[in-house]
Prior knowledge:
single chain, alpha+beta, D-amino Acid Aminotransferase, Chain A, domain 1, CATH 2.40.50.140, 2 domains, five-stranded mixed beta sheet, 6 helices, 15 strands, disordered N terminus
Amino acid sequence: MFSKYLKIVWLLLCSTVLLTTSSQAAGLMLAKAYDKQIDVTGWLMSEKLDGVRGYWTGKQLLSKNGNILHPPKVFVQDLPPFPLEGELWGGRNSFEKTVSIVKKQQAHDGWLHLKLAIFDVPNTPGGFTERMRKAEEWFSARPSQYAFIIPQTRVADHNHLQQELSKIEELGGEGLIVRKAEALYTAGRSTEVLKVKNYQDAEAVVISHIPGKGKNEGRLGSILVELNNGKQFKIGSGFSDAERSMPPPIGSVITFKFYGKYQSGTPKFPSYLRIRHDQNL
């Protein structure tokens, strides 16, 4: 009877720990899309790294959904005893490889090709620059081979922002993030953190495959997708030859880019980007 009681207590304790760690990664601060009408002069800008979001609790590394990740000890041994937020990043144009590394349920050496690119210090009082100072002081005294603080540049004006965006895109980067230097950390979409790109992107579910014609005869022509509001439309561009031969499965979630919307709400000029393999992370 006593051993049964101890087992119940142990299970309750484990459940409490899991709930606590999951809640620590919940309520993340999220960026809104940049609008050219917003004056971001004096804000701080940095490259928007196309990685997998990671949350360091001070003891464990979690995904954006609060799932426990499994990096080897060497990857996290020099991280601080306070929370950090960043992108698990393997370099430009390496998103799919990064996802495959992070998704594995046991530690492995693949992690050693990644770094935690730090962009915030949640649970620390003060504005953005004050919070980041805490991380800067830590890593200045204790450098990590597998973590770095994303450098920030102050925006001089709109032309400066556009010039930097062009540079990043030419290098194969996704875009920029701009933040108010004094912005407090708040959960949800924030008007003080904006993502800047020459296009918009969104997710949709693949409903069906539409056969191709002409040079695409015998393989994929386009896919019919559905947004979370129920609107359906076709995407026929952005696919490589390999993806036309092995298209994203029906029921999978894909990311696509577009350039504004019609009055009907349908995205303009949608183009396929990739399958969202990180949806369940």
